[in-house]
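[recover] target loaded
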């Protein structure tokens, strides 16, 4: 982990160097239920997680009630461009549901409510005192997010905004560049599918590592194994 020039809030310090587990289910899936996501979060605690990332107001509220770890909350609304907690009102609802940190789209794209990223962050700080995690897709996004006042920056959107290619695993190049430049914590997130990749993120300078699919999404995990078995079967035929 790189050294930090900025004073880091205690909530963020509590997750430094640790694993944050993202407990999310896609719409239409059997696990898309607040109770199920909360149970997964509780299991993650037992496994050594230092924080939880969750989506949706019901999930955030129940996890806040039952899990005594810092929670990064977000509200996905829409499918294109800015959809991770896209407006100030979305962010305010996430805070009211109980998230200690609110994750918002931290790119330089136009936000649906017309507010700039800096205006959104400033209002959240002034009106709620909540920490803000900016999910970015590029190096320039990260610089702009820090300038806008974000308390931490995540590599969540790397490969999904058109600014950078979608790497097979985590975007270690972007992670290292941001960690070496920003004064705020840089959190690794996105396509971290193995313990070795999580290890690589920490050595590349990540303040903390968020893992979701590889821990909390059995449909994807099953598909990985099913595809491997099918490949083996075809090779043996």
């Amino acid at each position: 982990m790189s050294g930090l020039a900025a004073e880091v809030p205690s909530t963020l310090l509590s997750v430094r160097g640790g694993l944050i587990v993202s407990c999310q289910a896609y719409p239409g899936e059997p696990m898309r239920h607040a109770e199920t996501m909360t149970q997964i979060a509780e299991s993650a605690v037992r496994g050594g997680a230092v924080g939880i990332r969750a989506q949706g107001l019901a999930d955030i509220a129940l996890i806040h009630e039952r899990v005594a770890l810092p929670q990064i909350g977000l509200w996905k609304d829409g499918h294109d461009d800015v959809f991770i907690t896209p407006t100030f009102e979305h962010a305010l609802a996430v805070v009211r549901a109980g998230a200690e940190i609110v994750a918002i789209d931290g790119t330089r794209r136009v936000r649906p409510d017309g507010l700039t990223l800096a205006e959104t962050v400033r209002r959240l700080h002034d009106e709620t005192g909540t920490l803000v995690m900016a999910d970015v897709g590029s190096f320039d996004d990260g610089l702009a997010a820090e300038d806008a006042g974000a308390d931490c920056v995540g590599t969540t959107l790397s490969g999904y905004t058109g600014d950078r290619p979608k790497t097979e695993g985590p975007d270690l190049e972007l992670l290292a560049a941001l960690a070496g430049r920003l004064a705020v914590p840089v959190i690794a997130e996105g396509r971290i599918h193995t313990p070795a990749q999580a290890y690589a993120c920490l050595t590349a300078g990540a303040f903390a590592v968020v893992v979701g699919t590889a821990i909390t999404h059995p449909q994807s995990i099953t598909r990985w194994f099913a595809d491997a078995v099918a490949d083996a079967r075809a090779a043996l035929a």
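[recover] notes: The mean pLDDT is 97.
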